[in-house]
Amino acid sequence: METQENRERKDFKELSTKELNKIYFRSESIKSIAAIIVIAIVGLAIQAGIINNFGGKDVVIKSLKNPKNISLNLLNILTFIGFVTRTKWGRIVGFIACTIWVTMPIFLLKFSISILVGIWGLYVLIPSGNLFGPDRLLAKDLKLEFKWRKKYKIV
Fold first, then answer.
1. Among 52, 55, 83, 103, which residue has the least CB neighbours within 10 Å?
2. Residues ≥6 apart with Cβ < 8 Å to 38
3. CB-hemisphere CA count at 13 Å for 21?
4. Does residue 141 surpass a pLDDT of 80?
5. 25 contacts: CB under 8 Å, gap ≥ 6
6. 98 near 118, Cβ under 8 Å?
7. What pLDDT is attached to residue 63?
8. Greatest CA separation found in the chain?
9. pTM for the whole thing?
10. Could you give the angle at which helices 139-151 and 17-48 cross, rounded to 10 degrees?
11. Per-residue pLDDT, 56
C-alpha cells in the first residue's frame, strides 16, 4: 500500500545512506551559511550607519564614504540569493565570497569570524556541485529521504 509519504519521497536508490548523509549535511551547511550571511548584512549595515540613522543626508554621505562596507554587503546579498536559489552562479559567487572572507582579514592582519565561515564555506562548496544548477538535488527531497531512512533505520 502506497502512503502519502512514499508518493512525495523522491527515490535516491543510486546513493548509499552514507553518501546521502554527506550531501544532506552539505545542503544544511549551505543553509546555515546563508543565515550567517544575513547576520553579516545587518552588521555591515549597522556599521555603515544605514540602520542606526534612519533618513537624512548624513546617512547617505556616511555610507558612501565607506565603499568597502557597501561592496561587501552587495557581495553578501548576492551570495545569499545564490545560496537560497541554488543556481549555478550561486556556487561561483559563493566561492568568490568565501575566498574574500578568508583572505581579507589575513591581509588586514586581524582575526575575524569570517575566516572560519569562509573556510567552512569552501569546504562545503567544493564537493557540492550536485546541489547547485538546473539538475540539482533539492534540499526538501534530501531532507525527506534523510528522515525516511533514519525512521526506517536504513544503513
1. 55
2. 80
3. 8
4. yes
5. none
6. yes
7. 60
8. 67
9. 0.85
10. 130
11. 57
